[in-house]
Write a structure and sequence with these properties.
The complex is a heterodimer. By secondary structure, chain A is α/β, with parallel strands linked by helices. Chain A is built from 15 helices and 17 strands. The C terminus of chain B is likely disordered. Classes of the chains: A alpha/beta, B alpha+beta.
Chain lengths: 425, 148
């Protein structure tokens, strides 16, 4: 696997501006202990830890200006409303979207994809139409489309992966047809770390006349995102994976698409006028935000995006690439370890198996040393099937991880190897 | 690290490497499949029952060391036992891995090696999967296994 480490071909010197010690000091949980050992948190693809900037922004909202939004004439309501709308503008800037009115606050990627499937999908997908996804999708970008296809009599297709865990672009192109109504795919794979060539895939899908949705859950924490450069029609990400609160995320969609989409959930805040006979709906984004929203969540999310923005997504990306290269090198020295997913373009996610040791046992052995990794199918069972493994162990890195933590992971895996002995199994 | 040694005792590692009573059981007249959707572990328990006793038992499947060793040691503990005795052993085992109740009880025999599991609550399901599957197999009506 050394060729994989070499193939990553990233610079091995960090940007001088990246002050790791200061970054770590911003995250109180990183100085805690687990099972008597300093926490080594390598489960960032599942969820990330929160900097003080986020918890303090939420505390300020509760402590200084909290009230319901969009509903009152009183001062606090106005201040909360303004703070939430500023958060919408922060999301717009993070995605380089043309307008904040195209940004919808939702619970996260899962809810966003369900919204597009239910609202845009029911209106635009009919019997015999096709939806194209890929073999590396998270269940949240599979199940809503399967449900839509069952309801509408449409057909779901999935572009297969090659042995590196990259989407086969020739197959992706071949599977696009005049019947393809939407192509929905991840920017970055949660289980393998593969970075998809989104711009190229979007261009191919558009040429076939399809609309494009990009699941950015794993991209937002690792890469600079620019929806205008990508050219897609919908882009979604979750707050908790980018150092913000859980239960808040955003969907960006092109104005002309959103404007033509029917409401998804009905309730307060999403209407214009209501009588028992007739309802007129608010324009986007409020049309899709029924009910009292997660106000403090949006404010916390904006604080997280400001935090990431101040460090610089490109600097974060470069630092994580260094960690990934080091981890690929160190883990390739562990006897019996096989990487699952060796894409040429890869975010800081390493999935692997160990001969004779089930991922759950690896996870428990590492946990006893204070190291948190994910063991399982990562909500991507088709990926596990593709690589003929029931599960993998996944180490995923974030902006606060250190080379010493990579060494701790490697040492833990060597110890697991010793404990289980040989390569039996 | 001591907790870890308690969990992965040598007996458990040995049964993981060389599971006993692993494979088909052509004479089986009871069977059940168990699945832990959280981790993907699968186990099939096969029983050859006669006169209310387990004459023979085997298991198949794939899982972690805890679930594999648990299934393997379970099969060793079951042979020749009546249904009533099996339920008692199960209750003792379940107490051991959840609350520690009954620890040190001679009734448990070799199953006592699972005493370390309760320090790892996320792994209790791994240790009990084969046992729950066994109970499902016992409840199944006497009938020949149609496929193998």
């Amino acid at each position: 696997m050394t060729s994989f480490a070499a193939a990553l071909d990233h610079p091995r010197t960090s940007a001088p501006a990246y002050d790791l010690a200061r970054v770590r000091a911003d995250f109180p949980i990183l100085s805690t202990e687990v099972r008597g050992r300093p926490l080594v948190y390598l489960d960032n693809a599942a969820s990330t830890q929160k900097p003080r900037a986020v918890t303090e922004a939420i505390a300020r909202c509760y402590g200084e200006y909290y009230a319901n939004v969009e509903r009152g004439v009183h001062t606090l309501s106005q201040r909360s409303t303004e703070a939430r709308e500023r958060a919408r503008e922060t999301v717009r800037r993070f995605l380089n979207a043309p307008s904040a009115q195209e940004v919808i606050f939702l619970r996260g990627v899962t809810e966003a994809i369900n919204l597009v499937a239910a609202s845009w999908g029911r209106k635009n997908v009919g019997p015999g139409d096709e939806i194209l996804i890929t073999g590396l999708e998270h269940h949240s970008n599979i199940v809503p489309w399967v449900m839509l296809c069952e309801e509408r009599g449409a057909v779901l297709k999935a572009a297969p992966l090659d042995d590196r865990g990259e989407v086969r672009l020739d197959e992706f192109e071949r599977l696009l047809s005049p019947r393809t109504r939407i192509a929905a795919f991840a920017h970055v794979s949660n289980s393998l770390g593969t970075i998809n060539p989104v711009r190229e895939m979007t261009a191919l899908a558009h040429r076939a006349g399809a609309v494009v949705l990009v699941d950015g859950a794993q991209a937002a924490p690792h890469l600079p995102v620019d929806v205008q450069a990508l050219g897609c029609d919908f882009y979604t990400f979750s707050g908790h994976k980018v150092y913000g609160p859980s239960g808040i995320g955003a969907l960006w969609g092109r104005q002309e698409l959103l404007a033509a989409m029917p409401p998804w959930q009905g309730g307060g805040g999403m209407i214009h006028t209501v009588t028992f006979e007739k309802i007129t709906y608010a324009p986007p984004p409020h049309r899709f935000e029924a009910g009292t929203p997660f106000i403090e969540g949006a404010i916390g999310l904006a604080a997280a995006l400001d935090y990431v923005g101040a460090l610089g997504p490109a600097a974060i990306s470069a630092w994580e690439a260094e960690l990934l290269a080091l981890a690929a090198e160190r883990l390739s020295e562990v006897p019996g370890l096989t990487f699952v997913g060796t894409a040429r373009e890869k975010a800081a996610v390493l999935s692997f198996t160990m001969a004779g040791i089930h991922p759950h046992d690896v996870g428990t052995i590492l946990d006893a040393e204070g190291i948190a990794v994910r063991a399982g199918h990562h909500c991507a069972q088709p990926v596990m099937e593709r690589f003929k493994v029931p599960a993998t162990t996944r180490a995923s890195f974030g902006l606060y991880n250190t080379p010493a933590e990579v060494e701790a992971l490697a040492a833990g895996l060597h110890r697991a190897r010793e404990m289980f002995g040989g390569t039996a199994g | 690290m001591n907790e870890l040694r308690d969990l992965y005792q040598e007996v458990i590692l040995d049964h993981n490497r060389r599971p006993r009573n692993f494979g088909p059981l052509p004479a089986a007249n009871h069977r059940a499949e168990g699945h832990n959707p959280l981790c993907g572990d699968r186990v099939t328990v096969l029983l050859d029952m006669a006169d209310g006793r387990i004459r023979d038992v085997a298991f198949q499947g794939a899982g972690c060391a805890i679930s594999t060793a648990s299934a393997s040691l379970m099969t060793e503990a079951l042979k020749g036992r009546t249904v009533e005795e099996v339920r008692e052993i199960f209750n003792g085992f379940h107490g051991l891995v959840t609350t520690g109740e009954g620890e040190g009880s001679p009734e448990l025999g070799k199953l006592a090696v699972f005493g370390g599991v309760r320090e790892f609550p996320m792994r209790v399901k791994c240790a009990t999967l084969a046992w729950h599957t066994l109970l499902a197999a016992l409840e199944q009506k006497d009938q020949p296994v149609s496929t193998e």
